[in-house]
Amino acid sequence: MASITQVYYFVPEDAESGKQFNCFIVRRPAESITLAQIREDFPLPGDYHFRFQYAYQSSNCKIWLDLPSENSFVPQIDQEIRIKATRLSWVDGSE
User: Rounded to an integer, what distance in angstroms lies between the CA atom of residue 35 and that of residue 42?
Assistant: First the structure.
């Protein structure tokens, strides 16, 4: 059986906040998920800029991190992947 990872996200443009997350599944282990995989499996239509929650120097200092490339592995915090998905367009490929 393949590993699955729950990925938590919110979309600020939909009046959502990081206090309550939505969730989708990626069918691979969390440590092998890249930005490209997140983009491919993201459940909402449109173009998005993804920022990932990251513990900077300690678990008490959480920041939102932009990744440098599509091949970058996404960070985890408290064994979870958390995303702030900023909608750029309702249409795929219009970036």
Answer: 10
The predicted-structure confidence for 63-83, as pLDDT tens digits, reads as follows 999 999 999 999 998 789 999
Q: Based on the number of CB atoms within 10 Å of its own CB, is 52 exposed (0-12), middle (13-18) or buried (19 or more)?
A: buried
| pTM over the 0.85 mark | yes
Helix H, strand E, coil C: the string for 27-95 is: CCCHHHCEHHHHHHHCCCCCEEEEEEEEECCCCCCEEEECCCCCCCECCCECCEEEEEEEEEECCCCCC
Tokens 């990925």 label which residue? 7
Q: Which residue has the tokens 């699955």?
A: 4
Radius of gyration of the chain (CA): 13
Pairing mode, strands 62-65 and 81-89: unpaired
